[in-house]
Structures are given as C-alpha cells and as structure tokens.
Amino acid sequence: MAEGRDPTLRELGEFSVIDRLVSGRALPAWVTVGPGDDAAVLGAPDGRVAVSTDMLVEGRHFRLDWSRPRDVGRKAIAQNAADIEAMGARVTGFVVAFGAPPDTPAALVGELADGMWAEAGKVGAGIVGGDLVASPQWVVSVTALGDLGGRDPVLRSGARAGSVIAVAGELGWSGAGFALLDRGLDRGLDRGTDGFDEVRDRHLVPRPPYGQGRTAAESGAQAMTDVSDGLVADLGHLAAASGVVMDLRSAALREDVDALTPAAAAAGVDPWSLVLGGGEDHALVACFPDYPPHGWRVIGAVRAGPAAVLLDGHRWDGPAGWQSFD
Fold this sequence. Notes:
This protein is an alpha+beta fold. It has two domains: 9-147, CATH 3.30.1330.10; 164-315, Alpha-Beta Complex (Phosphoribosyl-aminoimidazole Synthetase, Chain A, domain 2), CATH 3.90.650.10. The chain is 33% helix and 22% strand. The chain contains ten helices and 13 strands. The chain has helices at residues 9-12, 14-22, 69-85, 106-122, 173-182, 197-204, 212-218, 231-242, 250-267, 271-277, and strands spanning 31-33, 41-42, 50-57, 90-100, 127-134, 139-147, 164-168, 223-226, 245-248, 284-288, 297-303, 308-311, 314-315. The strands form three sheets. A seven-stranded mixed β-sheet has the order 8-10-7-11-9-12-13. Helix 3 packs parallel to helix 4 (106-122) and helix 5 (173-182) packs across helix 6 (197-204). It is globular and about 60 Å long. 50% of the residues are buried.
C-alpha cells in the first residue's frame, strides 16, 4: 500500500472493512445482539415481524458520477424504510449486503456506511448485520425489519368504494431530478446557478414521510403503499388487490404539477408525467374511510368498478411508472 493512500477493500480484507463500518455505532435498546456474530438478535414485542428487501445496482439504480457514496447509502435505507412504513409498522433494524470491486477505496465504502447509519437514525433504527463480497460493480441489498405495535398490517387489498385517496409526502420530485441529471443539466453549473439543486437532490436522496405510516394505520387506513414506481403504477397495485377504481383529481394534484413546472420545462418533460408516472419519491399513498389524519391530503376517491386508475374519470395515457426489466 502506497504511503498516504487510502487502502482498498482487497488490501484491508473483509473483516477489517466490516470492523471499520460498524465500530462505534449505537444501536437501539431492542437490539440485543448486533454485528459481529453469525446472526443478530432483535426484540419483537408484537410477536410478528414486518420484513422487506430491495436492491440498488450501480448503473441501474444509481450512478457514482451523480451520487456521492453517502447519498447512495441514504437512498438504500430510505426506500426500504418506506416499505415498512407502508405496512403501518415501525422500522426496528436493517441488514445490509454490499458488493464492490476489490480495488474500491475503503474510504468510499465508509462514506456509504455513514449515509446508511444517518438515514437509519432518522427512524430510530440501526444496521444490525450484513455481508460484504467482491462484485463487478457496486450492489447494495438491504433488508428492513419492522414492528407492527399490535396493529393489523395495512395491506393493498383493503380499499373500499366510497373511501378517499390521500398522500403523505411529495410527488414527482425524484423523476424531475432524474430528468435534469439525465439531460446533463448538472454539468458545468455551480450549485445554486439554475435553482434546481433541491430537485436534483431529491432524486439522489428521497425523503419518505417517516412516521406517517403508523399515523395512517392508527387512523384507520384501509390500504396503503409507498410511491416507488410511480403514482399511477402503485395505485394500480391497490386497485387490482382491492378490486376497485382509483379516481384521481387533477385539481388536487395541481400544486404538485405547478411546483415542478420550471424544472420540467428545463428538462423538456411534461410535469404531469412526473407527478403521475415518476417514481422513487417514496411518498405514502393510502385509502381512508373518511378524511385522513394531519400530514395527509386528499387526491382522489375510490369507486366501484373493474380495477383501474383514472384521472378525472378517464384513463391516463402517459407514462405509468418504472418497469424493472425495461
């Protein structure tokens, strides 16, 4: 190893890298065995555990010329935490598997871990274990664990005709940020020059409305999901599981569209396509039998009929959302 140069993963070895990533990190009281043994041990006071897993693959889900490693770490945790929130549960821990080329500087992996721990701390959880392996590119796989607190899980299949559709969080920002970045509108600009820094940042690091999943469950939410693939696409899952029509109101979405219109114009895209078809915001969308709790806003209504997602009573013919194998 050259003098003054940060060691690579190969030079340090798996266990030295792991020690660097977990040393000095604080874990919640319900974690009785954390990283370092063959398995972690977490308390499950409810007697049930909500579990979700997701992956980020370099070149498919993130680019290191756009994102700092810390951003990638935060995004990986946020998108998994949102899935647990969407069940009405509280996140209790994360298990992380990470692959990277052996010549990756260990300092970059440390930055990735810093981002993960920072985002996990926002939901009061920690990283309780994982794995490290060589791979051709960066791959981050996260499993999130959650506690339902004695409540029934909020499924996709409970929506009923006559209910309202409501959202917590913002829509279309991640898609707008991606459109700007994809068109090279990050190049040659000092931060703040074009006024779209926050839009780009929201693609790099989503902001799920932490805590609103439990709030929704406590307020009688019938069905819920997070907006990961796009509002129309994800409401389509609720419509299909519940056997109902989800009818969105354009007037209720106008504020979202207006907020993104300048960025959409700069990127040459339709702001409606961002709000209705843009994914990775990880807002929460749910159906309630009557008016939703504080922090939620009504954007449509549930009607009887064959499963469908409509906008003002008509089918949306624009982009519906992310497809994993396109």
